[in-house]
Design goal:
The structure is a single chain. This protein is an all-beta fold. It has a domain of about 120 residues. It contains 2 helices and 38 strands. About 40% of the residues are buried.
Length: about 475
């Protein structure tokens, strides 16, 4: 049955804090000439590729300029490519370099700061580096920003066990990566670098984690059980850079990197929220049918699928068709949904069954038994990977003719629970919440290429490039 989402309300939502001022494009172009991969963060911070940070001071009065030039610099006659301590552009915009002096972060200290600097103001949502000391002569540029004290250590808690860390050799695509792990047995996020099996440190959390996802190897989005706020953690600062409040508890997070959007569910509010990753603001609220769980996004980013936990109905939202809502039908005890080649695949953990539904006609095309306790599905091109926990096995189904082509037996002797793709590779990681082992599968070769130890249980895991901290 098809119907336009009469029940779906599309509404713009104001964020909990004022939108940070965006660095003008003319200033971005000026910096990009020498540093083309500069990160102009949503809060206004300017971070060069080597993690050198500049604070933008917005002028009280700006002058228009077709192409910006340097009016003043410190040291004198310095160019941007030399990364000077201060630059004043001819539109009165000021760039202040964050300087690390004897382990303390500060900015240039001038006895008589120029007028452009004294009369300017930092973006009021900017996250200043932890422990930053602002010279007395520049206190006026702070405004209402909450400046952390020098003792501030962010969220990091050092791990004494790291002194006796055990070295491991990761599979090549994991070399130089970091794992952010929620174990489910405590609140904190354990941080493990892939050449070890022991957490190096943890990021302290005040609530039990429900879901977490990374964006751009830079931010960690975290939702919590029974907590109406989603935290966004800057991995370079190891601090909460933004808190997003919801009417009810946010639950699942899906990141759509191609469209720079995050989708966040709230089952108790029958809503899916659309969140801009460019501005870090909520854009729309989709009012849906039922209480959303088992939320998934198709490979091409055009459809969202979910189960109503009250009725067991599967629903699909067509994102490229004015949010058309389609009822797929009712299926008992769904543990995961996937979509490939015009078909919906659903598994039942209690029935050990895989059902295949034609998306256009809604006909049940096939249903057959899989290994015991299927808990997760992952689609890669034309292959569907089926993880079954009881038998500790991954079965591979070719979605063109819907036959099982391969069976990969995990040698972790545990209760595997989750498959996590490793970005920019053909690999997926299989983890479990009971044993200190994980397996890496090559989805192209259909082989287990590595099984490695890990010293913590894994409920949720996020894999990123090893993040460089702000200089």
């Amino acid at each position: 049955m098809r119907k336009i989402l009469a029940a779906i309300c599309l509404c713009f939502i104001a964020c909990t804090s004022a939108l940070a001022a965006q660095v003008p494009k003319s200033v971005q172009d000026f910096v990009n000439k020498d540093f083309p991969e500069t990160n102009f963060r949503f809060d206004g911070a300017i971070i060069l590729p080597d993690k050198t940070m500049y604070l933008p001071v917005f002028p009280a009065k700006t002058n228009d300029a077709a192409e910006l030039q340097i009016k003043t610099s410190y040291p004198v006659n310095a160019q941007m490519k030399q990364k000077p301590d201060m630059l004043i552009l001819d539109n009165n915009f000021v760039l202040l370099k964050v300087i690390n002096t004897n382990g303390k972060k500060t900015v240039i200290n001038l006895n008589d700061p120029p007028e452009e600097l004294q009369s300017g103001l930092l973006p009021q949502d900017i996250l200043l580096p932890k422990g930053l000391v602002i010279p007395e002569t520049l206190k006026g540029i702070i405004g209402d920003i909450d400046v952390m004290v020098t003792q501030d250590t962010g969220l990091r808690i050092n791990n004494n066990r790291h002194k006796n860390k055990k070295i491991t050799a990761p599979v090549e695509p994991l070399d130089g990566k970091s794992f952010y792990v929620s174990s489910g047995v405590n609140k904190n996020i354990q941080v493990i670098h892939t050449n070890t099996q022991t957490p190096e440190y943890s990021l302290t959390q005040e609530h039990v984690i429900n879901d977490m996802k990374a964006y751009n190897n830079e931010f960690l989005f975290v939702t919590y059980f029974d907590y109406k706020t989603m935290n966004i953690i800057s991995l370079m600062d190891e601090k909460v850079i933004k808190q997003v409040n919801f009417e009810t508890t946010p639950e699942q997070i899906i990141i759509d990197n191609n469209n720079k959007i995050a989708y966040i569910t709230s089952g108790s509010n029958s809503s899916i929220y659309i969140f801009s990753l460019e501005t870090m603001t909520l854009k729309k609220q989709l009012k849906i049918n039922g209480m959303c769980e088992k939320f998934t996004l198709t490979q091409d980013g055009t459809k969202m699928l979910y189960v109503d936990r009250n009725t067991n109905n599967i629903w699909c939202i067509e994102l490229d068709n004015n949010y058309l809502l389609k009822n797929i039908g009712s299926f008992p005890n769904v543990s995961k949904i996937a979509y490939a080649n015009g078909k919906i695949y659903t598994i039942s953990r209690t029935k050990n069954r895989l059902a295949i539904i034609n998306y256009e006609t809604l006909d049940l095309m096939s249903e057959f038994e899989v290994s015991e306790k299927p808990v997760d599905l992952y689609v890669k091109d034309n292959d569907l990977f089926i993880l079954s926990a009881q038998d500790n096995i991954v079965e591979v189904l070719n979605t063109e003719d819907d036959v099982i082509t391969d069976k990969l037996f995990l040698n972790t002797n545990a209760f595997a629970t989750k498959m996590t793709p490793i970005e920019n590779s053909n690999l997926i990681m299989v983890t479990n919440a009971l044993s200190g082992l994980y397996s890496v599968i090559d989805t192209e070769l259909k082989e287990i290429v590595k099984t490695s130890p890990i010293d913590v249980r894994v409920r949720e895991i996020v894999i990123t490039d090893k993040v460089k901290t702000i200089k």
